[in-house]
Write a structure and sequence with these properties.
Blueprint: H1 2-30, H2 53-64, E1 71-81, E2 86-96, E3 100-107, E4 110-118, E5 121-126, E6 131-136, H3 140-144, H4 150-158, E7 169-173, E8 177-183, E9 187-194, E10 200-207, E11 212-224, E12 227-239, E13 242-255, E14 270-272
Parallel strand pairs: 6-14
Antiparallel strand pairs: 1-2, 1-13, 2-3, 3-4, 4-5, 5-6, 7-8, 8-9, 9-10, 10-11, 11-12, 12-13
């Protein structure tokens, strides 16, 4: 009985020695922090609509047909009908691409007005009324009824597209023409091309935000500097019940260098800002 007690006593002593070690080991494991990997959210996949290959080919041909130049001089016969003006005149243009367009408008050889258009402004020298009009480019909207950027004006002169969402363009090979219809966020653009030559025939734009339309037709294509250029064009802009019409017929086009763009301020003229 004493031997049995001694054995059990030894076991108790052994357990009492091991228990703190087990507790320490247990406590140590409980403090071990397992690093959890936080999943990184995947970026949303943006699917860009593919441009119809037929549309792509046609638009590439149109762009390749653009006259390449840094400076250009041209002479046009123009006629304007608008709420403020109904007049025919000769227009001389000096144009530094991407920077400025200078115009001199004459009636029977007498200069009546001079205009200088830049990316952010328009200056008008009204020689008939002895005044200068110095305005931001947005002033054009008051006369043409549609808000045009400098790039829009250049594209209209060059026979290139305006207000066209090419990613949403649909191609149609019709019996008499080729059409591209682009239904963008704001603008609905209908474009027609000559079926044989693939030259641009017309652009019709509907502004879905405002009651405005732009109708441009191109005709009388002639070779100019290795390109097929529309010498005649008609521009019709409508806002509500008001309309602005302009017919422009190019008489000559020359690629130049170091052109002058004179626009001086006569101190005797009235300045309107």
């Amino acid at each position: 009985m004493g031997h049995f007690t001694l054995i059990h006593f030894k076991k108790i002593i052994l357990c009492s020695l091991l228990l703190p070690l087990l507790l320490l080991s247990s406590c140590h494991r409980s403090k071990t922090i397992t690093k959890t990997e936080i999943p990184v959210p995947l970026a949303p996949v943006v699917v860009t609509p593919a441009v119809d290959p037929n549309v792509q080919t046609l638009l590439k041909q149109l762009k390749n047909n653009e006259i390449p130049f840094k400076e250009l001089a041209a002479k046009l016969k123009t006629k304007v009908s608008s709420p403020d003006l109904n007049q025919s005149f000769t227009t001389n243009i000096r144009w530094k691409k991407g920077e400025k367009i200078w115009l001199s408008m004459s009636i029977i050889g007498i200069e009546g007005a001079r205009v200088l258009i830049t990316k952010d402004s328009i200056k008008i020298m009204d020689k008939i009324n002895n005044r200068y009009i110095l305005k931001p480019l947005s002033y054009i909207k008051q006369k043409t009824l549609v808000d045009l950027t400098f790039s829009d004006i250049e594209n209209l002169l060059l026979g290139q597209l305006i207000f066209t969402d090419t990613l949403k363009a649909k191609y149609a090979d019709n019996p008499t023409n080729i059409a591209i219809n682009a239904d963008g966020t704001r603008f609905l653009t209908n474009i027609l091309f000559n079926k044989t030559t693939k030259n641009l025939s017309s652009i019709f734009v509907t502004d879905k935000k405002y009651a405005q339309t732009i109708d441009v037709t191109y005709a009388n294509y002639q070779p100019q500097f290795g390109k097929s250029f529309a010498m005649d064009r008609e521009l019709k802009m409508k806002s509500g019940v008001q309309t602005f019409d302009m017919i422009a017929k190019f008489q000559s086009i020359e690629i130049k260098q170091n052109l002058e763009y004179p626009f001086y301020i006569n101190p005797d003229y009235t300045i309107e800002k």
